[in-house]
Amino acid sequence: MPVTGVYFIPSHPNASTALSTLTERLRSSFTDEDFIPLGRWALDHKLMRDTPGLLPASANPGQRPSKPRYMQLLSLTHYPSHGFIYTSEPTEKPFHPPSAASSAPSATPANGAVSPGQGGPAPAPTAAASHTSATSQGGASAAETQMLMTTVPPSSYKTLFQHFTYACQPFWCHRLTVTVPNGVVYDIGDFRVRLGDVRQTWPTARVRGTIVEIEWRGPSVVDSLAAASQARRSGSADDVDSGVDLSFSVLEEADIDAEYEATASLIREFWARLGVQGAREAILVPGIGKEIKEKLGRVRGAGRDVGGRSLKDEATLAGLGGVPFEDDIDPAAGTDVARQYMEVLRFNR
Amino acid sequence: MHELLLFASVPVHQHHELLQQLAGLTAMQPRHAIERRLIFKAYRKPGLITGRVGGSQDLQQSGDLQRVNKMLNGSMFYTQVVGPVSEKELGPASTSMSTSVPAPDPDTPMAGTDESKPPAPVPNAAVPDGEASAYDYEQQPWRLEFRDIPEAATRSAITTRVMASAALPRGDIVPSMNAWGYGFVTEYLVEGDIFIHNDIVIFLHRVLHYPSSDNEPREPRRNLTALKDMEPLEKTGSYVLQASITVQDGTNQETMKTASQHLFGLREQLKSAVRLEQADRLSLDTRAK
Question: What is the pTM of this model?
Fold first, then answer.
């Protein structure tokens, strides 16, 4: 998972966007050898908001205006294996939250394994693996991010959106759909840049602005770490209980933060060269790097394959007339950049 | 998507015979299926004023506000999250298939099917506390199965309802469901056999409850109970025969009509064995009050 930054330059409905200016400046700032057009990309983003929050404050006497809750659905062509759903954490959990029922055998180690800087030698490998699904829960993660990332298979992306608009009207209201229909990808030196005009398609068609994703493709601890964890995962399970892994992981987690900081400054430097004003930046957004750190936690509980069941088994089990279960090899891929996109696309509406 | 359905009740003494009849009709061996079904309920913040405020001022409400109010008073639903499990995952080594059924039913064809399955990999090393169960909750695949209340006032003698089915990520699905506005209520198990007959899915199944305990868990179980310890919802152990057709575009009258005709065709074919009929609409009401 590469480190990225996303910039959004808003524009007025009928004015021209910053896209041509940006392309021009990119061309003039870099030599032709460094500037390689790669192809196209596209984005689809749906913003939903909690319906009760849409009532004007006056219509709700005696009630404190609550913080708006959002649900954002994002699909990116460069991560075709899944769609992203980013939802505000519920302000109050229905019934009993999982943390309350910590009597369940694996609940306690699960919380321990994800809290940064602690977590034993992972007595329960399943606990750490609970986050393969890119969902998060309780513990430290809830404190630092108020939103919860879920990745779903592409086929579910549309179905779930339709479900929310059909069956969840009292609590979710579709506010906006924006798309980037015709983005362009360039390789520029150590960076990969994705540019495109953001068009709002619902409720009314208009132009919202221009979006730029800058991806660092140089050497990166984050990337090599992902590779290392892959190697470990396929390796033996002997070291599961060894204390060495603990120190290893703590060190790496600090490294990850430093890595994000360092790369962010590289991306900012790159952006500054273009000299475009009035952009909104999303690099070190809340929750960034969470999946990478979880991946790291999983390394300690290594020795088990991600695919606990064989695909064949899955096919036999796929139930009554339902869709077959799709297997996403890396459900966490692209969650960082998805967070960044959603940060700038969470228009106040 | 729409779903068209017919149901029949199958007493336990007829189960074995019907399995064979269905196998003959569909020219296929039954596909045994066990599914965990988690029930989630849409929840609304308690204390929220959803009714109209200041009735006399209704006329002054802007169109937008009216729309929001209408949405706030829209229906909310129960929905299911369904995950397939295998017999082997259902608790400590129940090797003998026939013991899994509490009712006096030998179930021989199912045992045959079970043996023909490829042996599932048993990641014993991955089990945290050394229990015999090979079930791994963190790898459990799920899908969201939404069913609306069956459509009212259809002249046809078939249950028709809006449905949605979407694959979800593996593992603990509760945090995501909570964030999306659903709270976990309870869960049960469905056990049965699936046949495919042209475009009709035939599911001969029954609902099994977990053995009752004093403290009902407030979250999905991490470990499953052996099938033979499960208690059928219907005490006599009888089965439900469900014949269904899924139609992608429910607004297309032509395809809906064709689907109905296919179901009626099956009803005729099975007439001598079971009586397929539509279900009572309100008994399939999924709305949350």
Answer: 0.80
